[in-house]
C-alpha cells in the first residue's frame, strides 16, 4: 500500500501540543531562561551560562537544606510506611466499626495544609498548647521554638499525624483485595501470623506501597506550608527545607537567576529519585 | 489414619436459625472411611463448600459433631488437624519459588532442612514439577499453580485427608483430564482420604469410587456412580445425574397404580401396599431416558405420544416426546429409526421408579440395599 503524505495530519496533533506547551514546556523553559541570565531589572540582563548552576551546587544554603530535606523525607518514609501498614492491619475488615475507623483515619487528610500547621503550632506550645504543656509537665524540657531537636520532632510528628492515614488507607484497600482463600490456605499450611504477613499480605501490598511511597516521597520532598506555619524554618535554619529556601531566595531576595537554577536542580532530583525507585522495583519484578 | 465421621451435623450461618431454610447444612450423619476417594456432588449453593470447610476446620459447625477417628475435633483449628485443602482458585505464595511454596508447610512445622529438601523433591517428582522448582510461583500457568497448591497438601507426611473444593474450575479441559488422572494416581500411591467437591457429574464419576450427592443442605444419596445412575435414591439425584437427567412425572393415586392424565402406570402389589401405607400426595414416577422402550408400532401396554423434537448429539439421539402434557426425553442409539409424528413407548418395570415426597420407594426385594447413614 502506498502511503499518501498529507501534512494536514499535523493539525490533529496541534491541540495536544498546545496543551502540553502551556501546561509544562513554556513554564519550564521560562525557568530555564532565567537560570542562565543575571537579571537586574526588566530591561537589563546578562547571559551567564551555567554560572548560577555552579554557584548553587557549591552553595551551602542549598546543600544544607538538601541534606535536611533528604533526612526529613527519609524519616517520614521510615516512620509512616510501617506505621501505616500497622494501622491498616489493625483496622476491622467489615461492619460498622470498619466505616467508623475509615472516617477517623481519613480526617487528617481532609484538613488544609496551613490549618495543620496552625493546629500543631498551637497544640505544641509549651505555655498554652495541650501537647507542649503535657510534655513539659512530665518533666521533659520541650520547646519547638528554641530547640532545633524539638522543632524537628514536632515537624515530623505533624507529618506523621497528617499523612500516615494515606498509607494506612492505601494498605487497607490492598488488604481487602486479598481473597479469603489465601488466609484459609495459610491456616491449613500452619503459617504463623508473621508468615502470613510476610508471604501473603506484604507481597500483595507491594503495588499500593509503591504508589504510597512515591506519593509520600514527592509530597514530603516538596513540603512547604506546614513547617512554614509551624516553625517558619527555624530556629535558625534548622527546619528550613528545600522549597522554603527556594522561596526565600526567589521572592524574599528576588535572586531570580540563582532561584531558577535551584528550582531546576530541585526538579531533577525529584525526577531522578522517583525514576530510580520505579526502575529498581520494576527490575525486581522482572528478575525471576 | 483418618475416618471422618459427621455426627448429627448441622450448620447455619445465621445466629438464630428458625426454619430449615436457615440451614446451609441440615442435620445429617455421614462417614468418610479412611483411604477412600470420594466426590461430593451437587448444584451451586447446596452446602458442599460449607461441609468441606467444616471438615477442614475453617468453620465450626453450629450443631452436631465432627469426629476424626472417633475423637471430636469441632473446636480444633485447621492448623492442628491432619488435613489439607485445595481451593477453587489456586492459592500460591507469589513471592516465593515453587520450591519454597512446597516447602512452606514443612518449614512452618520446623522440619529439619534436609528432610524438607528430600520431601519436596519427592513430591515435585510425583506432580511433575521438578523442572519448575526454581521458578517464581507467580509466573506459572493455572494448572501448574493448582499442582503447587496440591503439592503443599501432599508434602506434609502427617496429612491423612485432602479436601478439594472444585479444584479444576480454572483449568483447561484437556489438562483437566491429566490432572484428574494424576489425582487418582496420587490417591493410590499415598493411601490418603480424598474428598472432591464438584458440580460436574463426569468429574465426580471419573475421580471417585463413591459419590455423595448433596441437595438442599443434605446428602441425599451416597453410592457408586452406577448406583446413582440405576437406582437414584432421591428425585433430585435422578434429575441431576445422567445426561439428560431422569424423566420425572407427577402422578396421582388410582386403582392398581398411579396415573397422570388418562394414562395409568400399573404397579406391582408389594409396591402398591407400601404406597397405601403412605399419606403423602407428592408422588412422582421417574425413568431414565436410556431405559424408555420405543416401539415401532402400537402395542397393548405402549403409550402413544407426540414427537416434538429430535436432538442429534453425534453418538446418540434424544427424542423429545409429549405424553399427556408432560415432556419426556428418550435416548436412542444413533442408528435407530426415528419415529415420525407419533411414538409408542413403554416403561420397563425394573427401571420405573416411584418417588414419594421426593424419596425413592421400592419393595425390599433388592439384594444390595444401600446403607444410607
Question: Could you walk me through the main structural features you see in this protein, from its secondary elements to its overall organization?
Answer:
The complex is a heterodimer of chains A (288) and B (373). Chain A has 288 residues and is mainly α. Chain A has a domain at 75-241: MetI-like (MetI-like fold), CATH 1.10.3720.10. Chain A has 12 helices and 2 strands. Chain A has helices at residues 10-35, 51-58, 60-90, 96-106, 113-123, 130-137, 148-176, 180-188, 193-221, 225-230, 242-252, 256-287; strands spanning 37-39, 45-47. In chain A, strands 1-2 form a two-stranded antiparallel ribbon. In chain A, strand 1 (37-39) and strand 2 form a beta hairpin. The longest helix of chain A has 32 residues, at 256-287. Chain A starts with 9 loop residues before the first helix and ends with a helix. The relative contact order of chain A is 0.13. Chain B has 373 residues and is of the alpha+beta class. Chain B has 2 domains: 4-223, Rossmann fold (3-Layer(aba) Sandwich), CATH 3.40.50; 247-361, Nucleic acid-binding proteins (OB fold (Dihydrolipoamide Acetyltransferase, E2P)), CATH 2.40.50. Chain B has 9 helices and 21 strands. Chain B has helices at 48-56, 98-108, 113-126, 142-154, 173-190, 201-207, 225-230, 235-240, 269-276; strands at residues 4-12, 23-32, 37-41, 63-68, 71-72, 83-86, 161-165, 193-198, 210-215, 218-223, 247-254, 257-260, 263-266, 283-287, 293-295, 303-312, 316-323, 326-333, 342-346, 353-356, 359-361. In chain B, the strands form 4 sheets. Chain B has a 6-stranded mixed sheet with strand order 6-7-8-3-9-10, sandwiched between helices. Chain B has a 6-stranded antiparallel sheet with strand order 13-12-11-14-20-21. Chain B has a 5-stranded antiparallel sheet with strand order 15-19-16-17-18, with no helix packed on it. In chain B, strand 16 (303-312) and strand 17 form a beta hairpin. In chain B, helix 2 packs across helix 3 and helix 2 packs parallel to helix 4 (142-154). The longest helix of chain B has 18 residues, at 173-190. Chain B starts with a strand and ends in a 12-residue tail after the last strand. Classes of the chains: A mainly alpha (288), B alpha+beta (373). At the A-B interface, helix 8 and helix 9 of A face strand 6, helix 2 and helix 4 of B.
Amino acid at each position: 500500500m502506498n502511503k499518501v503524505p498529507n501534512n494536514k495530519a499535523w493539525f490533529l496533533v496541534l491541540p495536544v501540543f498546545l496543551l502540553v506547551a502551556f501546561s509544562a514546556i513554556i513554564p519550564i523553559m521560562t525557568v530555564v531562561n532565567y537560570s542562565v541570565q543575571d537579571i537586574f531589572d526588566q530591561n537589563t540582563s546578562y547571559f551567564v551560562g551555567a554560572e548560577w548552576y555552579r554557584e548553587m551546587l557549591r552553595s551551602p544554603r542549598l546543600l544544607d537544606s538538601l541534606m535536611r530535606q533528604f533526612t526529613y523525607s527519609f524519616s517520614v518514609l521510615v516512620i509512616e510506611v510501617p506505621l501505616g501498614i500497622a494501622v491498616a492491619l489493625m483496622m476491622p475488615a467489615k461492619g460498622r466499626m470498619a466505616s467508623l475507623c475509615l472516617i477517623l483515619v481519613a480526617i487528617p487528610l481532609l484538613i488544609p495544609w496551613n490549618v495543620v500547621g496552625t493546629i500543631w503550632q498551637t497544640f505544641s506550645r509549651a505555655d498554652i498548647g495541650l501537647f507542649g504543656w503535657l510534655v513539659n509537665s512530665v518533666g521533659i524540657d520541650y520547646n519547638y521554638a528554641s530547640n532545633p531537636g524539638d522543632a524537628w520532632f514536632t515537624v515530623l510528628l505533624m507529618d506523621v499525624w497528617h499523612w500516615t492515614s494515606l498509607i494506612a488507607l492505601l494498605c487497607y484497600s490492598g488488604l481487602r483485595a486479598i481473597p479469603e482463600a489465601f488466609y484459609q490456605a495459610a491456616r491449613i499450611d500452619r503459617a504463623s501470623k508473621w508468615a502470613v504477613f510476610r508471604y501473603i499480605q506484604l507481597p500483595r501490598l507491594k503495588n499500593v506501597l509503591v504508589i504510597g511511597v512515591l506519593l509520600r516521597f514527592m509530597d514530603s520532598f516538596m513540603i512547604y506550608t506546614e513547617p512554614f506555619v509551624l516553625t517558619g524554618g527555624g530556629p535558625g535554619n534548622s527546619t528550613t527545607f528545600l522549597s522554603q529556601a527556594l522561596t526565600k531566595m526567589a521572592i524574599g531576595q528576588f535572586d531570580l537567576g540563582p532561584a531558577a537554577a535551584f528550582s531546576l536542580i530541585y526538579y531533577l532530583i525529584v525526577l531522578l529519585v522517583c525514576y530510580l525507585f520505579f526502575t529498581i522495583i520494576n527490575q525486581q519484578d522482572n528478575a525471576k | 489414619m483418618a475416618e471422618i465421621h459427621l455426627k448429627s451435623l448441622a450448620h447455619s450461618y445465621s445466629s438464630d436459625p428458625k426454619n430449615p431454610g436457615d440451614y446451609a447444612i441440615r442435620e445429617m450423619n455421614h462417614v468418610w472411611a479412611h483411604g477412600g476417594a470420594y466426590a461430593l456432588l451437587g448444584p451451586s449453593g447446596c452446602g458442599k463448600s460449607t461441609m468441606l470447610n467444616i471438615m477442614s476446620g475453617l468453620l465450626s459447625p453450629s450443631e452436631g459433631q465432627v469426629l476424626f477417628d472417633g475423637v471430636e475435633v469441632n473446636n480444633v483449628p485447621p492448623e492442628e488437624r491432619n488435613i489439607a485443602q485445595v481451593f477453587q482458585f489456586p492459592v500460591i505464595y507469589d513471592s516465593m519459588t515453587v520450591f519454597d511454596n512446597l516447602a512452606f508447610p514443612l518449614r512452618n512445622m520446623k522440619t529439619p532442612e534436609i528432610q524438607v529438601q528430600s520431601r519436596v523433591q519427592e513430591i515435585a517428582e510425583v506432580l511433575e514439577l521438578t523442572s519448575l522448582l526454581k521458578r517464581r510461583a507467580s509466573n506459572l500457568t493455572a494448572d501448574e499453580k493448582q499442582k503447587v497448591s496440591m503439592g503443599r497438601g501432599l508434602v506434609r507426611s502427617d496429612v491423612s485427608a485432602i479436601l478439594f473444593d472444585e479444584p479444576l474450575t480454572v483449568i483447561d479441559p484437556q489438562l483437566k483430564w491429566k490432572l484428574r488422572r494424576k489425582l487418582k494416581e496420587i490417591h493410590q500411591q499415598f493411601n490418603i482420604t480424598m474428598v472432591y467437591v464438584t458440580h460436574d457429574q463426569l468429574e465426580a464419576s471419573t475421580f471417585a469410587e463413591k459419590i455423595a450427592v448433596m441437595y438442599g443442605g443434605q446428602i441425599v444419596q451416597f453410592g457408586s456412580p452406577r448406583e446413582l445412575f440405576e437406582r437414584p435414591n432421591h428425585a433430585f439425584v435422578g434429575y441431576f445425574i445422567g445426561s439428560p437427567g431422569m424423566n420425572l412425572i407427577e402422578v396421582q393415586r388410582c386403582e392398581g397404580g398411579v396415573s397422570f392424565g388418562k394414562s395409568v402406570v400399573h404397579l406391582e402389589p408389594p409396591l402398591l401396599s407400601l404406597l397405601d401405607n403412605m399419606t403423602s400426595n407428592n408422588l412422582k414416577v421417574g425413568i431414565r431416558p436410556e431405559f424408555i422402550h420405543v416401539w415401532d408400532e402400537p402395542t397393548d401396554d405402549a403409550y402413544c405420544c407426540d414427537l416434538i423434537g429430535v436432538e442429534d448429539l453425534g453418538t446418540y439421539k434424544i427424542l423429545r416426546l409429549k405424553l399427556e402434557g408432560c415432556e419426556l426425553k428418550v435416548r436412542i442409539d444413533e442408528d435407530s429409526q426415528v419415529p415420525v409424528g407419533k411414538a409408542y413407548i413403554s416403561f420397563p418395570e425394573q427401571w420405573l421408579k416411584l418417588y414419594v415426597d421426593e424419596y425413592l420407594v421400592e419393595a425390599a426385594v433388592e439384594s444390595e440395599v444401600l446403607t444410607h447413614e
